[in-house]
Specification:
With 724 residues, the chain is an alpha/beta fold. Strands 1, 2, 3, 4, 5, 6, 7, 10, 11 and 12 form a 10-stranded mixed beta sheet that branches. The chain has an 8-stranded mixed beta sheet with strand order 15-16-14-13-17-18-19-20, with helices on both faces. The protein is globular, with a radius of gyration of 30 Å.
């Protein structure tokens, strides 16, 4: 034995327990992954099962050399994963103070830096007195490809198999939400120490008789029978170099196949009840006949499993008696997991509706960007979310996106009818079809008039008013009149009025005496250096200016283009954007543009991130509105930002920007020349902007605020009223 057994370093909260057997090839990458692990302090306990390939020697070299405490326990014989993990747990629980969590981690499982932190965060967030969480597992991908799912939690089939959800599927973002699952693989699951101790039988957490395979499923049965929940957390990711797969059974050793068959029957002896018979009897009977035929014809060596079970029947039956005596949950609650992949975090949690936007995936402007970031995060946290989408922006066949349910409805595609017609149809759909909905976020102040339609269904509403829309130049007098009336209705009809900037909150407070709930936008930078779009547009990193906004008069793209004609040098200006119903305005702007100006149209996803990641500076010339997402995103990506000196913009960028007066062409030209003439200062301003964005504009914090808002709306006893 090596390391510091029985001594728990001060402040250690996690015991990482690993069992090795001839894992020398995996250990360098394993220790490299642990060296980057973020979150609470941890201690690694490795039990080696008599390896013969240098595993033990490598492990001993890490004691004292690794940046974290390492304890190595060398065993004289191979006791399997079950025996090894029990020995590691004994050492973990013998320490003082005990670790709060135990991470069971294979040597061929390599977690992302935030893996443990994400699991702990999920366990803390979702545990409750009614549904205590005893274990959380993450999203495991096959190490050989990084593109194939290994496991997204464990599920039970009706034929009494336990399977890894999503195994062998190409990874394209399925399983995006935090959910309750039956169990988690022993390869990389975090357990609450208290849950493991509660599920133990005669002080042993794992049944030594399982040796290898299915011991994690058996533990999850006992956790569930004691009332502990198991969660799947999609944001926690790890790679798994799995070798033993069902399709490779004929290539596996006799010992592996022996334990696999023996443990299938052990699992059923311990945990099969009459409660699961209606769900499992037929499918299990068919499968057992298939297994019997396969073993007799192809794998007769595995018949030794039946002999083993008979020889040890007294010990097995006594353990079954102890397991059943400790049940605190009716068998029917465990039986419901057969044939079911997952359950929502809280089945009683009401559904949230989001109406009034064009929909997601985001392909237009600020509201869509916000919903694209917010709705999946709410879904990850267990909220059933429905987003209403317009059929000319979102494919009618699309039913879900990143865990969010989508309802795609038609509208009249005209300047004045697009939004109101779609919102009207969305409200009617919500009245008759949105079962379980208790709260709705309606975006765009012009939609205030439709809120009373939701009242008969007792759907409480929050209205996001954005900017002062009546000031937008694109609206004629009918549009400005509608928005002027809507401002007043926004103070009377919704339960909560939401603003995104202090300037907008002050407008409603001073003019109407209405207090708003201020929730900012967020940014989650995902830089893409040297994206192909740069070559496509003939751009060099840090040698172009970038403008991003809808091409509408109050966003001043025409003034930006005109001012740039007076700027010296050869740096390109990339004008990203478009706008419906403004074709004449856009055509005239392009006709008069300087040759250095590029118009790639509307750009989204990785192409947009690629442009943001390499710009010298970005230009924001907006005059109307609250917090502009494009400005927040540019700051988050560390861009030097050239900003129109308008109250909402100054509130967003503070002292991190170069300011100009968009109506003074010389002022705008000077801002361009400052950034082009002093690149080091531009970089410093960009770094300052990134720090401000990270502290003030964080999507997880924004989601926290919307969660609290929806809880208030859904709480009829103390929450806001549905209407005015």
């Amino acid at each position: 034995m090596a390391g510091s057994p029985g001594v728990e370093p001060r402040g250690v909260k996690v015991a990482i327990c690993t069992v090795t057997w001839n894992d020398a090839a995996n250990l360098p990458r394993f220790f490299e992954a642990l060296a980057g692990l973020e979150g609470p302090a941890f201690r690694l306990i490795v039990v080696d099962n008599a390896s013969a390939d240098g595993t033990e020697e490598f492990l001993r070299e890490q004691v004292g050399a690794a940046a974290f405490p390492v304890e190595v326990i060398a065993q004289g014989r191979n006791t399997g994963f079950a025996g090894g993990l029990n020995r590691a747990l004994e050492s973990a629980f013998a320490s003082d103070p005990h670790p709060e969590w135990v991470l069971s981690l294979n040597a061929d499982a390599w977690p992302a830096p935030d893996y443990a932190m994400r699991l702990i965060e999920s366990l803390r967030r979702f545990t409750s007195e009614k549904r205590p969480v005893g274990a959380v597992t993450g999203r495991l991908l096959r190490a050989e490809t990084n593109e194939t799912i290994d496991a997204c939690g464990m599920a039970l089939t009706r034929s009494w198999r336990h399977v890894d959800r999503g195994a062998d599927q190409a990874d394209h973002g399925q399983y995006p939400a935090t959910e309750r699952v039956f169990g988690g693989t022993g390869a990389a699951t975090l357990f609450l120490s208290a849950a493991l101790k509660d599920a133990a039988i005669d002080g042993r957490v794992i049944d030594d008789d399982f040796h290898s395979y299915r011991e994690d499923a058996e533990l999850c049965f006992r956790l569930r029978q004691r009332g502990w929940e198991v969660l799947y957390e999609p944001r926690a990711c790890a790679l798994h170099g799995r070798v033993n797969l069902p399709r490779r059974r004929r290539q596996m050793s006799r010992d592996i196949n022996f334990h696999s068959l023996k443990n299938r029957y052990l699992l059923q002896i311990y945990h099969r009840t009459l409660a699961d018979a209606p769900r499992t009897l037929l499918a299990t009977s068919i499968r057992e006949l298939g297994i019997l035929g396969y073993v007799l014809l192809r794998e007769p060596s595995s018949l030794a499993a039946c002999a083993w079970l008979w020889r040890n029947r007294r010990r097995i039956l006594e353990r079954r008696r102890l397991i059943r005596a400790r049940r605190s949950v009716p068998p029917r609650k465990t039986a419901r997991w057969f044939g079911r992949e997952s359950l929502p975090l809280d089945p009683e949690r009401p559904r949230v509706l989001i109406l009034g936007s064009r929909g997601i995936p985001a392909a237009y402007s600020g509201y869509e960007t916000m919903i694209e970031a917010l709705a999946p995060r709410l879904a990850e946290r267990g909220w059933p979310v429905t987003v209403y989408c317009r059929s000319h922006y979102v494919d009618r066949r699309l039913r879900s996106h990143r865990g969010v349910d989508l309802v795609v409805l038609p509208t009249l595609r005209t300047k004045y009818a697009d939004t109101p017609v779609h919102t009207l149809l969305s409200c009617l759909h919500a009245i008759f079809r949105a079962r379980g909905a208790r709260a709705a976020l309606v975006v765009n102040g012009a939609n205030a008039v439709f809120l009373p339609l939701l009242w008969p269904r007792r759907i409480r509403t929050a209205l996001h008013v954005d900017g002062i829309e009546k000031r937008r130049a694109k609206w004629g007098w009918p549009g400005r009149l509608v928005y002027a009336v809507s401002e007043r209705l926004a103070c009377l009809l919704p339960g909560v009025t939401v603003s995104d900037a202090d300037v907008i909150a002050g407008h409603y407070r001073n003019r109407y005496g209405r207090e708003t709930t201020m929730i900012r936008y967020g940014v989650e930078p995902q830089p893409i250096v040297s994206h192909p779009i740069l070559n496509e547009l003939g751009l060099e990193p840090r040698r172009y200016f970038l403008y991003v906004s809808r091409f509408e008069p109050e966003n001043n793209p025409h003034r930006v283009v005109a001012a740039y004609a007076r700027v010296g040098g050869d740096l390109p200006l990339v004008m990203v954007g478009d706008a419906p119903y403004a074709s004449d305005f856009i055509a005239e702007m392009k006709r008069t543009a300087d040759p250095r100006v590029r118009f790639p149209g509307a750009v989204y996803a990785d192409r947009y991130r690629g442009l943001l990641s390499s710009a010298l500076a970005t230009v924001h010339a907006t005059e109307v509105g609250g917090t502009h997402p494009a400005l927040v995103e540019a700051m988050g990506y560390g861009n030097c930002v050239l900003v129109n000196d308008e109250p909402a913009n100054r509130e967003t960028a503070a002292d991190t920007a170069i300011y100009f007066d968009v109506r003074d062409q010389a002022s705008l030209t000077a801002a361009f020349e400052q950034a082009a003439g002093d690149p080091p200062r531009a970089r410093l301003l960009g770094e300052r902007a990134a720090r401000r964005a990270a502290s003030e504009y964080n999507w997880d914090r924004v989601t926290d605020q919307y969660e609290e808002l929806f809880r208030r709306l859904c709480d009829r006893r103390s929450g806001p009223r549905s209407g005015g």
